[in-house]
Specification:
Number of strands: 45
Shape: rod-shaped
Distance between the termini: 112 Å
Largest sheet: 5 strands, antiparallel
Structural class: mainly beta
Length: 578
C-alpha cells in the first residue's frame, strides 16, 4: 500500500466520522439524499438544497445563493469563478451570511455551529444568530464543485539533498494510527528538500507544512512506519515529501489555493520521480498540498585518495597506477581511476673513457643509466688534432759565446722541447731543454765556442693519454757565435720582390728573393748546413710554394708564404687567390 493510498483511507475515515457525528446531533433523516449529486462534469457550481429538522417551527425562513432562493430539495447553479454568498434568514428576523468562495468543497453548517462563538469553518465571515436559537437543531448541507483555477501550480521544482552514508534513521514514525487516536510524529532525520513553484503560490509557514519520510519498501508497496536503520552509500532510498501550499496573496496563514485543475509537472534535482499526487485534506481547517515520492541515491563520504601501482614506469616506458577513493563510513570503493605515469627518462652517470683517442684514431667513451645498468650510451672521442699554423724558429748570437733561440707560440700545446748541437754533419741535435706550458717561447745558451756554427730546432708536444706526443717541429736553424767566423757570416734579413700578390686559381708566379748578409765581404754557411732560402706556405690548399719560390694558386682564399734564411730571419708574402 502506497503512502498516498493509506493517507486517502485515513482522511476518508475522518470525514465519515465527522458526518456521522453531525447526523446524530441534528437527527436529520438522510432518507432523501438524491439531490446530493456528484459535481457536474462541466465543472459548473452545483449547489444542492438544504434540509432541517426542528423541534419547533422551522427556524429558517429562506436560503438564498447569490440572491436566488434555494429550496430544501432544489438546486442552484453558478458560473465558474463566481463568488457565492449564502444568505440565510431566520424567523427571528436576523440572518447570517456565509461567503462560499471558490475554495469550498464541502461546508457543514449546524445550529450548534451558528450558536457557538467562533466557527471552526470560517468565523470571520459568519454573523452569529441570537442566543434564543442556540438550541435550535438546524442542519444545512451545501455541496458544490469549483472551476479550474487559472493560477493553479503548473510546475514544482523540488531539490532533494541525498542522505550521507552512515546516517542513522530513528524509529520515529510520520503517522502512527491506533483504534483511538491519530498521532503525528516526526521521523529523524527527515528527507531534506527545497521547493519552488512557477505560480502565484508559496509554501505554508506552518511547522507541519512540509515534512517527509524515508520509506520502507514492502511486497505490497510501502510500510507506513517508514525506513529505520543506517543509510548505505550508493544505495537508493525512496523519500516521501509532503508540500503544503498557500496562495501568496491570501492573508490567512492556513489558506490553501483551489484544488489543482491540472497535475503539475514535477522536476526533481537530486533524485528521480517515482510517484506524485495532489493532496486535499482537513485538520480543523482545509489544506491543499502535494505529495511526491522520489528515489534518491545516498552519497558516500569520501576519504583520502590512495594510490595502487599497476606497473612502474621505466626509463623508456610509461607506467600506470590506480587512484582509489573509499567511503570513510562503510569502506566501499567510491571511485577507481587509472592514471598514466610518464616514462622516467635516463639518469645518466658520468662519461668514462673506454678507449683514448690518438693523433690518428678516434677514442671511445660511455655512460651507464643509474636506473637501469643495461642502458648504456656510447660516444666516439674525436682524433687529437695537431695545432694549426706555421711553427718557425729563429736563432741569433748573443755576445761572443752565447746564442738565443726563439719560436712562435702554438695554441693547444702542453710544452716545447729544445734540440741543439754544434754544426757537425755527423752529429744529430740532442734534446737540451723541456719547457712545460705555453708561455715560455725562448731558450738561451751561454759559454759556447766563439766564431763557431751551431744548429737548433724546437718540437711542440701535447699529452695524449698521459704520454708526451710531438705534434709539430720547426725547420732547423743555424747561427755562428759572435757574428761569424773568419770566412762566414750570418744572414741579417731577407728581401723579396713582392710582399703581397693576387692570383687566379691555377695561376702561378715565382718570387725573387735574396739574403742580406751581416758582413757582405764574407760568405754564408755552405749548403751542407741547409739551403740559403726556404719557402713555406701557411695553407697549401690555398697556395703551394716550391723550394725555388714558385707559388701555385690552388683555391679561393688567403694565406701567407714565408721566405726564410738559414738562421730563421724571414719575410712574409700575403697571397690572395681569387
Amino acid at each position: 500500500m502506497s503512502v498516498f493510498t493509506w493517507r486517502r483511507k485515513l482522511m476518508k475515515a475522518v470525514m465519515t466520522a465527522l458526518l456521522s457525528i453531525a447526523m446524530i446531533v441534528t437527527f436529520i433523516p438522510f432518507t432523501d439524499m438524491s439531490a446530493y449529486a456528484a459535481p457536474a462534469d462541466d465543472q459548473e457550481f452545483t449547489i444542492v438544497g438544504y434540509q432541517e429538522d426542528s423541534h419547533d417551527d422551522d427556524c429558517i425562513q429562506s436560503v438564498k445563493i447569490n440572491g436566488e432562493t434555494l429550496t430544501e430539495e432544489g438546486e442552484v447553479k453558478a458560473a465558474p469563478g463566481s463568488k457565492l454568498d449564502l444568505d440565510i434568514k431566520l424567523k427571528s428576523g436576523y440572518d447570517f451570511a456565509y461567503d462560499f468562495d471558490e475554495w469550498g468543497l464541502v461546508t457543514l453548517i449546524s445550529a450548534e455551529d451558528l450558536s457557538r462563538e467562533g466557527s471552526s469553518m470560517n468565523p470571520a465571515i459568519i454573523r452569529m444568530p441570537e442566543a434564543e436559537y442556540a438550541d435550535t437543531n438546524t442542519f444545512i448541507l451545501v455541496i458544490g464543485t469549483r472551476e479550474a483555477d487559472p493560477n493553479a501550480v503548473k510546475t514544482i521544482d523540488l531539490t532533494i539533498t541525498p542522505p550521507k552514508c552512515g546516517t542513522k534513521i530513528t524509529g520515529d514514525y510520520l503517522y502512527d494510527v491506533d483504534a483511538s487516536s491519530v498521532i503525528y510524529t516526526r521521523q529523524t532525520p527527515q528527507p531534506k528538500a527545497s521547493v519552488s513553484f512557477k505560480a502565484a503560490y508559496e509554501l505554508n509557514g506552518d511547522e507541519r507544512s512540509n515534512y517527509g519520510l524515508w520509506l520502507k519498501k514492502t511486497e505490497d508497496g510501502y510500510d507506513e512506519r517508514g525506513f529505520e536503520g543506517t543509510i548505505k552509500g550508493g544505495k537508493s532510498y525512496d523519500a516521501w515529501i509532503r508540500l503544503q501550499i498557500k496562495n501568496s496573496e491570501d492573508p490567512r496563514p492556513t489558506a490553501a489555493p483551489a484544488t489543482f485543475s491540472t497535475t503539475p509537472q514535477v522536476n526533481i534535482t537530486g533524485g528521480t520521480l517515482v510517484e506524485s499526487e495532489i493532496d486535499d485534506y482537513f485538520y480543523g481547517r482545509r489544506y491543499t498540498g502535494y505529495m511526491v515520492i522520489a528515489s534518491v541515491k545516498a552519497k558516500h563520504v569520501p576519504g583520502k585518495a590512495t594510490k595502487k601501482t599497476i606497473s612502474k614506469p621505466t626509463c623508456t616506458k610509461a607506467g600506470y597506477h590506480y587512484v582509489i577513493t573509499k567511503c570513510t563510513k562503510c569502506g566501499d570503493q567510491i571511485s577507481k581511476k587509472k592514471v598514466k605515469d610518464k616514462a622516467l627518462g635516463h639518469n645518466w652517470g658520468a662519461w668514462k673513457v673506454v678507449k683514448k683517442p690518438t693523433l690518428t684514431k678516434e677514442g671511445l667513451k660511455k655512460r651507464v643509466c643509474k636506473r637501469d645498468a643495461s642502458h648504456v650510451q656510447k660516444k666516439a672521442i674525436p682524433k687529437i688534432e695537431k695545432p694549426k699554423g706555421v711553427f718557425l724558429a729563429r736563432i741569433k748570437s748573443k755576445g761572443s759565446t752565447g746564442l738565443v733561440l726563439s719560436w712562435n707560440k702554438l695554441s693547444s700545446v702542453d710544452g716545447y722541447d729544445v734540440f741543439f748541437h754544434e754544426c757537425d754533419k755527423s752529429e744529430q741535435c740532442k734534446k737540451v731543454k723541456t719547457i712545460k706550458g705555453n708561455s715560455t717561447l725562448s731558450w738561451t745558451k751561454e759559454g759556447l765556442k766563439a766564431n763557431y756554427p751551431y744548429k737548433a730546432y724546437v718540437k711542440a708536444w701535447i699529452k695524449v693519454n698521459g704520454k708526451k706526443t710531438y705534434v709539430k717541429i720547426t725547420p732547423a736553424v743555424h747561427e755562428i757565435t759572435a757574428g761569424g767566423s773568419n770566412s762566414y757570416t750570418n744572414p741579417a734579413g731577407v728581401t723579396v720582390n713582392k710582399t703581397s700578390l693576387s692570383l687566379g686559381a691555377g695561376k702561378t708566379t715565382t718570387l725573387k728573393a735574396e739574403v742580406n748578409k751581416k758582413d757582405s765581404s764574407k760568405k754564408l754557411l755552405p749548403k751542407k748546413h741547409g739551403p740559403e732560402l726556404r719557402y713555406i706556405s701557411s695553407n697549401k690548399k690555398v697556395a703551394a710554394v716550391s723550394d725555388s719560390g714558385k707559388i701555385t694558386a690552388k683555391a679561393k682564399g688567403k694565406c701567407k708564404v714565408y721566405v726564410l734564411a738559414l738562421n730563421g730571419v724571414k719575410e712574409v708574402v700575403k697571397v690572395t687567390v681569387k
